[in-house]
């Protein structure tokens, strides 16, 4: 009896990188590449139809990046093993992705054997990190905790995200916000996810309270 192969979905906006990665992974008898997508939104739709075991997900992509796509991938398939495969060595990206539920965080300069073994470990339920990122994570945990500067966090929001935050204080739905701002409902959803991440908040209610406490509902 032949063991089933690990079904893999690649989500990365660089065609040449995806081609090289596909070529590398297809040399392994136990791997099968069942799909490719060039951005997060396309990847979410594809994952819902082809049901991969593992997703290799880039962070910085047009239309929808990996940080926004990750929670949506896991919301429909909570047991999905998502490995972030990125050039970003930013520890905030690392901690945010692992907090959301990524199974691993790997840098694109990783060696081949480590990548192949990481995919197999992720399928078995293990968490995997590039050695460089493990060191960065440990150093961050050892660093003293500095109180968050809420004004500085607020200024990281785009104008649209600030508008969306103000609308959240009214207790309205994404559909109503979309109608008021002349946007699609899915775009508003992305704005909400982005502003929650940037403000280190975890719900629309927390965002509304944040906005009211800072007088943003009166703007």
From TrEMBL:
Family annotation (PANTHER family): NITRATE_NITRITE RESPONSE REGULATOR PROTEIN NARP (PTHR43214:SF41), TWO-COMPONENT RESPONSE REGULATOR (PTHR43214)
GO molecular function: DNA binding
Organism field: Entomomonas moraniae
SUPFAM superfamilies: C-terminal effector domain of the bipartite response regulators, CheY-like
Residues modified to 4-aspartylphosphate: 58
Residue stretches making up the Response regulatory domain: 7-123
Ranges where the HTH luxR-type domain occurs: 150-215
Cited Gene3D superfamilies: 3.40.50.2300
Record's protein name: DNA-binding response regulator
GO biological-process terms attached to the record: phosphorelay signal transduction system; regulation of DNA-templated transcription
InterPro entries linked: CheY-like_superfamily, NreC/VraR/RcsB-like_REC, Sig_transdc_resp-reg_C-effctor, Sig_transdc_resp-reg_receiver, Tscrpt_reg_LuxR_C, WalR-like
Signal sequence residues: none
């Amino acid at each position: 009896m032949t063991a089933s192969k690990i079904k893999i979905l690649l989500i990365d906006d660089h065609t040449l990188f995806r081609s090289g990665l596909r070529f590398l992974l297809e040399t392994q008898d136990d791997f099968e590449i069942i799909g490719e997508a060039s951005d997060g939104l396309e990847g979410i739709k594809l994952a819902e139809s082809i049901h991969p075991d593992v997703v290799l997900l880039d962070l910085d992509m047009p239309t929808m990046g990996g940080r926004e796509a990750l929670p949506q991938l896991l919301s429909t398939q909570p047991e999905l093993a998502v490995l972030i495969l990125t050039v970003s060595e930013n520890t905030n990206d690392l901690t945010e992705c692992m907090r959301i539920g990524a199974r691993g965080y790997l840098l694109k300069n990783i060696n081949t054997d480590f990548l192949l073994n990481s995919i197999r470990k992720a399928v078995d339920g293990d968490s995997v990190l590039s050695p460089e990122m493990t060191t960065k994570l440990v150093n961050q945990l050892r660093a003293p905790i500095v109180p968050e500067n809420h004004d500085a966090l607020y200024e990281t929001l785009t104008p649209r995200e600030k508008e969306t935050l103000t609308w959240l204080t009214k207790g309205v739905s994404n559909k109503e916000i979309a109608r008021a701002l002349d946007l699609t409902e899915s775009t508003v959803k992305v704005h909400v996810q982005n502003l929650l991440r940037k403000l280190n908040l975890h719900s629309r209610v927390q965002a509304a309270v944040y906005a009211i406490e800072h007088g943003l509902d009166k703007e």
